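Side project, low priority. Logging it here so it doesn't get lost.
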Amino acid sequence: MISVTSAAIIGIDAVAIDVEIDMRSGLPAFEIVGLAGQAVKESRERIRSALKNTGFSYPLHKIIVNLAPADLKKNGTLYDLPIALGILAGMGCLAPEQLQRCIIVGELSLNGELRGVPGMISIAELAEQCRMPLLIPEENSAEAAAVTGRAYAVRNLRHAFALLSNITKFQPIKQSQFQPQQTKQVHLNAIKGQNTAKRMLTIAAAGHHHALLIGPPGTGKTLLAQSVPSLLPPLSRQEALETTKIFSCAGLLQPHAGLITTRPVRMPHHNISKAGLLGGGSQIKPGEVSLANNGVLILDELLEFNNDVLQGLREPLETRQITVVRAAERITYPTKFLLIATSNACPCGYLGDPNRRCRCTLPEIRRYQRKLVGPLLDRIDLFTFLEPVSAEEYQQKQEPIQAPAGVCHRNGLLSDEETQAVKLCPEVQSLLAKALSRLKLSGRGYYKTIRIAKTIAELDGQLEIRPHHVAEALRYRWEAVNIFN
């Protein structure tokens, strides 16, 4: 029996898989066991054609392939190459011990050429942890080079055979250096007027606070939302690794792509399905909330989304991860995104517009806003209402947005316990107590106010939260009370 080491992708992580190949006398057959998916079972025809078309003979034996552990579901085409090389070892063309010294993955075409496979960066991390060489398709070389210096890239089956049989000397792929880039989007300086909204979005970007822009059509809500990514700092290497793993496992990386160097920005249409936004499907894939991890999720026209889709946001917003369960599979994806949403206040859009009269009835407005009332609304930190920009504001010279005076932390990610540890002076405590009573803030809203105030203080270059910082934070919370009550 021949054993080849390969890998499987579970969520965004890779685990080692033993590909066991048994060749015995009997009627020619090819059987794959070990909870293999349809794409894995179809590999028999690709392997048979690839072997014949690259000059190797195909054995007239009964071939049984077991993917161990057998209780772990295997999907994808990455087992083509390890199975083909295992068959060559069973025929005596390769030394079996060569196949156990490295992790091998790759999809074969009918002519023996190798195609890239999803999840390579996760597999490269596994190889680095196990301190094992990695044999991969050339198409995945840049991705693997971001993580390990032990990867060997091959173009086809004959090329892989030459490497393992020491016919040709190979050098591992040189490990690449990470160079982050600033996300290129619309900048706040290019938008006329709406200074309150700009200030709120600056706070949102500085402290990772979810924000909702509400107002009539034509007030610049979408443009303002699209400007937020330009306010965020560049990705750290750890964030880039996590982001690239998600995109790679979802099959969304371009061929020969390495680490993602800019923060992801996702802007799904409001007709998106629940599985599309949150993740799932017949073969579980990450949704938009996970693809926006370490970046920005822009939900334009928030109240046009289906209610069950919106309510599904509550868990990822609160816990910054989402668990998708399908049959016997249970996959957890990270969802540490910054939510920037926009919405009209009523079905016709002109509620609150000083220049146009709203034609909606009160029941219609209540039904329209019902999706946001309650727990979902409480998970959004900042709110503001936008009025149309005046002719004077269009003609005024735009004041540039100044860089923050202080160093801001991602206060929106603080836990309740960490928020409780923030020192508050007596004046601030008194103001918060009055706000808790008057605004009827929930416990979540109370802690959010402290986190927002802390970010505002840091933007001002101050270490201590002062009453005017809390007052500004409460102003953005009070907007929700005015609009949705």
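Brief comment: The radius of gyration is 28 Å.
Revisit when time allows.
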